[in-house]
Amino acid sequence: MAETLEKPPKEIESEDEEEDQTFENLGLDGRLIRALNKKKILKPTPIQRVAIPLILEGKDVVARAKTGSGKTFAYLLPLLQKLFTASQESTKKLAPTAIVLVPTRELSQQVYKEVRSLIELCRVPLKVVQLTSNMPTSDLRTALAGPPEILVSTPACVKKCLSDGVLQATSIGDSLEMLVLDEADLLLSYGYEEDIKALTPHIPKHCQSLLMSATASDDVEKLKKLILHNSYILTLPEVGDIKDEVIPKNVEQSWISCTARDKLLYILSLLKLELVQKKVLIFTNTIDTSFRIKLFLEKFGIRSAVLNSELPQNSRIHILEEFNAGLFDYLIATDDSETKEKKENDQKKIDSKNSRRHAKPKPKADSEFGVVRGIDFKNVHTVLNFDMPLSVEGYVHRIGRTGRAYSTGASVSLVSPDEMKVFEEIKSFLGDDEENDSNKLVPFTLLTKNAVESLRYRAEDVSKSVTKLAVRESRAQDLRNEILNSEKLKAHFEANQKDLDLLKHDKVLSKKPPAPHLRVVPDYLLDATTKEASKRVKLARAAMGNNNPGRRGFKKKFKKDKDPLKSLSAQGPKKGRRERKDGNENHKQKRQKT
Ligand SMILES: Nc1ncnc2c1ncn2[C@@H]1O[C@H](COP(=O)(O)OP(=O)(O)OP(=O)(O)O)[C@@H](O)[C@H]1O
Fold it and tell me: Are 120 and 34 in contact (CB under 8 A)?
C-alpha cells in the first residue's frame, strides 16, 4: 500500500527560497541547464524546485500544481537526465524506456516538440517519437522499430500498439523504466480508463511513475491506485487553500455585464478601441459562435483565426504554431470540453437512431482534441471569455492560458444575465473579500458606456449581415480550406515551399470585402476617456516590448527554415499571396479518426 507524504506548501512557495534556487542546485545536468538558458529559462518554478530532485532520486511523484506552473519541464528534465545516463549503459531494448501519456494529440505534439528540442540542444543520441491512434499499423511499427527511448502518445494509441502486436507486452515489461501520465486529472474523463487498464499489467514493478495534474480529483486517485507501485509517493502540495493553488496569481481578472445580444458590440469595442493587450485568445462554447465573431470582426478589418475540434489535426497543430509564433493576434477557440461528454452521449444516441434507420452518421468532432487543458499558448496577454464557461473548473483552465510561468496576463469575461449563475459560482470560488486581491474578479473599467454606445449603430448594422446562413457557409468554407491545407501539408510541402501560402489560417471568409470606412474608428466617435485608456494600454504594451515581434521576424525565419513538414513549424505568408480557388474535390477527404 502506498504511503503518502505531504509536503507543506510553505516549503514550496517560499519567496526567499525561490530567489536562491537555481537549476544547478537541483542537481540538473549541465547540458540541460545550457539548453534551458538558450530557451531563456533561467530559474526553476516552485513545482520544478520540488519535483526535479525527487524524480532524479527515483521517487514516484504525484505532482499537482496550477496551470502554467511549468509541470512539463518538472518531469521532462529529470526524465531526460536519467535517460542520458541510461543510454551510456545501454542494453538492447525492444520497447521504449520512457512513455509519456497525454489526453490529446495537441498535447502529445507539444510535449514531443519540447523533448525533441531539448535533445537537439543537448546533442545527445536519444530518439523520441510521437504516435497517434489514427496512424496505420505499418507506420506505428516503423516508428517503434529501433526502438526510440521515449514514446509520447495517448493511452488509446498505446493500447492499439499492444493489440496490433506493434508493441509486445513482454518487451514493455523488460524495457519500461519511466511512465508519465501528464494531465492525469483529464485522462479518465477523456475516456481512457480501459486503454490505461490494458497497459497497467505490463508495467514492471521497478518502473518509476509520475502523475502530473492541475487539480486533485477522484480520477487522479483512481490512477494513483492503478499505476503507482513504489511504496513512497510524494503528493505536492496536498494541503492549503485549493483556490490559491489552482488560480494563477499573475492574471488580472475582470468582467463586463452585458446582454447576450450586445456581446459582439462589446468585443468590437474592446478590440477596435485597443483596450486589451494582444495577443488575445477568445473562448466560445460553440463553433458557430466562433464563426459569427470571426465574420463580424472581419467587417471591421480585424482578422482572426478559429480553432475547433472539427478541423483536421494538421491544421489545428499549424494554427497553434502560427498563433504561438505571433503570426496573428486574435484566435477564437471553441472550448467544448465541458460539453464533450454530453455531446458524445448525444452523438451515440443519434448514431444508434441513425443506424436503426440505416442512415449515415454525421461526421464527428475529434474527441482527442482539447484547447483548454494543457495547451501552451505562447505570449497570450488577454483571455477573453465571449461565452462564459460552464463551470468554475472550466474558468480556471481558460484563464490559465495566460500568465504562464513567470509572465503576466489579463482576462475579461463578458457575462450575460443567463450566465450569472456560473459567474456567481466563480466569484464565490475566488473569494469575494477585500483582503484577497490576487484572485479577484473586478469590473472592467477601461471601457465606458459612451465608448460602447458610439459603436452601437455600426455594430448592430454589421451584425445583421452575419446571418445564420453566412455562418454556416463560412464554417463549411473554413473546413474545406483547412482540409485542403492539411492535405497540402502532407503532399506538397517538401516539393514546393510556396504552398505555404495556402496555410494562412486567418483568411477572410466573408464573401464581400470589408467596407473601408469600418476599418477605422473616426475621431468624433471617441471620447477623451477612451482615448486615454487606449493610450495607456498601448504604452503598457510598448513597455513590455510586446509589439508583435513574431510577424516582423517572420520573413527572416521563413528563409532559414528548411523542412516545414517535419517540424510543422509556423511558417507565414508572403506578401501578395496567391488566392486559391475553392474546389469541391476535397470534400471526400477522410475525417480524423480518434
Ligand atoms: N522555469 C521556468 N521559467 C520560465 N518559463 C518557464 C519555466 N518553466 C516552464 N516555463 C514556460 O512556462 C509555460 C508553461 O509551462 P507548462 O506548459 O509546463 O505549464 P503546465 O504547468 O504544464 O500548465 P498546464 O497545467 O496548463 O498544462 C511554457 O511556455 C514553458 O516554456
Answer: no
C-beta atoms surrounding 217 within 10 Å: 17
Please tell me whether the interface predicted TM-score (ipTM) of this complex is above 0.85: yes
Cell triple for 366: 475529434
- Distance, CA 405 to ligand 1 centroid (Å)? 5
Is ligand 1 within 6 A of the CB of residue 404?
A: yes
What is d(CA 332, CA 290) in angstroms, rounded to the nearest whole number?
A: 6
**Distance, CA 74 to ligand 1 centroid (Å)?**
9
Q: Which parts of 469-555 are beta strand (E)?
A: none
Write down the mean pLDDT value for the chain. Answer: 76
Nearest CA residue ID for atom 8, ligand 1: 70
Ligand 1 center–CA 77 separation, angstroms: 12
Contact 152, 115 (CB under 8 A): yes
Cell, residue 273: 478601441
Ligand 1 neighbourhood includes 70 CB (under 6 angstroms): yes
Q: Is the peptide bond before 557 cis (omega within 30 degrees of 0)?
A: no
Closest protein CA for atom 27 of ligand 1: 374
Question: Residue 369: phi, psi to the nearest 5?
Answer: -100, 140
pTM: 0.67
Q: Is 405 in the pocket of ligand 1 (CB under 6 A)?
A: yes
Centre a 10 Å sphere on the Cβ of residue 216 and count the other Cβ atoms it contains: 16
What is the spatial distance between Cα 99 and Cα 152, in angstroms, rounded to a whole number? 6
Domains and CATH numbers, the chain: 23-239 (3.40.50.300), 251-339+369-544 (3.40.50.300)
The three-state secondary structure class of 415 is strand
Q: Ligand 1 in contact with 379 (CB < 6 A)?
A: no
User: Of the ranges 39-43, 319-323, 389-393, 572-576, which one carries the lowest mean pLDDT score?
Assistant: 572-576
